[in-house]
Amino acid sequence: MLTLNELFKSIKKDIKNSKKIEELNEIRIKYLGKKGIFTSYIRNLKNFSFEEKKKYSMIINQIKQEIISKINHKNQELTAFILEKRIKKEHIDISLPGRRTENGFLHPITYTINYIKNFFYKLGFQSINSPEIEDEYHNFDALNIPKNHPARDSQDTFWLDDNRLLRTQTSSMQIRIMKEEKPPIRLIFPGKVYRNDYDTTHTPMFHQIEGLIVDKNINFSNLKWIIYNFLYDFFGKDVSIKFRPSYFPFTVPSAEVDIINNHGKSLEILGCGMVHPNVLKNVNIDSGIYSACAFGIGIERITMLRYGISDLRSFFENDIRFLKQFKYN
Ligand code: DAH
User: Fold this and answer.
1) Residue 83 included in any domain
2) Are 84 and 168 part of one and the same domain?
3) CA 211–ligand 1 middle distance (angstroms)
4) pLDDT of the residue at 57
5) Atom 3 of ligand 1, residue of closest alpha carbon
6) Are strands 126-127 and 185-194 parallel, antiparallel or unpaired?
7) Distance 272 CA to ligand 1 centre (A)
């Protein structure tokens, strides 16, 4: 067995020669651990006489404290050394250009909705939000859509249960508004609508903006004036508009509007008409006193035409290369 002095010397040598933190930890365990060499010296004390115990325990404790402080000191030294080596190796080139965080911008659909809102605000309209979960009454019955109408087919409508559904058109909001508000009414309601359809011109979710005017003496030419002026504003005065008669159960007469693009192809963008007397009756508005007109514009459709987008689905694929082209705000 080494003398205490010899042991202390060899421990100091080990500490001095260690080059890694792990090595230092091993040394700590080797000498000071539960089964460590130095610990066994302490344990040996019990065989000594009381006087010797007193004397040696002081010395041993002192040496132990010194070992601990040397290990700690070496630990600091090694940590600093390793850090310095790392800093030298990981040299930072501060002249490299940084990574920029890019600013976000509005989705083209949001932009179009805002644009339309601003146009109608100038004509004294207000805009309101509306629920996307509707019931059969507001989405169909009250809008004079007969029970056997193909739009009710489960192919088109996402039903939630026997009565509730994801609205297929913003027209459902006409009923809610006319039941709650007294004329005169001048409102637009933009929002999402849902139909079970998917190809280059249909997605299961798309956006419409509905307009509703209820007042005395509202007639078809008021409606036509608004539609034409909106389209001139949105597409420019050169736009080629086809206003043609159509059929919707909730308007009479009804019309649809097509825009004819540069290639002579027409694309339907909105439906409109004079609100049907049956609908006015359903909402307790006296059609002898008041008349109403309404329109529903397909937001994706007009956005596609305005920017020459050929596939409706690109709006919702979240391809940043597509979306980045619309940095107009
Ligand atoms: N809701 C119809 C659709 O989704 C569009 C429409 C037609 C809205 C005529 C109207 C209207 O307000 O008067 O196809």
Assistant:
1) yes
2) no
3) 9
4) 86
5) 169
6) parallel
7) 6
**Is there a single domain that holds both residue 226 and residue 134?**
yes
Q: Structural domain tally of the chain?
A: 2
Domain coverage including residue 41: 4-89
Atom of ligand 1 nearest to the CA of 250: 13
Q: What global pTM score does this model have? A: 0.71
CB-defined site of ligand 1, < 6 Å: 169, 171, 210, 248, 251, 254, 271-273, 294-296
Residue 7: closest CA among 48, 50, 43, 36: 36
Report which of residues 111 and 148 the model is more confident about: 111
Residues 142 and 13 placed together within one structural domain of the fold: no
Q: Has residue 225 got a pLDDT over 70?
A: yes
Quote the distance between the C-alpha of residue 223 and its chain's center: 36
The reply to whether 65 and 172 lie within a common domain is no
Q: Are 305 and 259 in contact (CB under 8 A)?
A: yes
- CA distance from start to end of the chain: 84
* Judgement on whether residues 146 and 275 belong to the same structural domain of the protein: yes
- With respect to residue 101, please indicate whether it lies within any of the assigned structural domains: no
Q: Is residue 50 predicted with pLDDT exceeding 60? A: yes
Domain check: are 29 and 176 in the same one? no
CA distance 206 to 234: 19
What average pLDDT does the segment 88-112 reach? Answer: 88
CATH of the domain at 225: 3.30.930.10
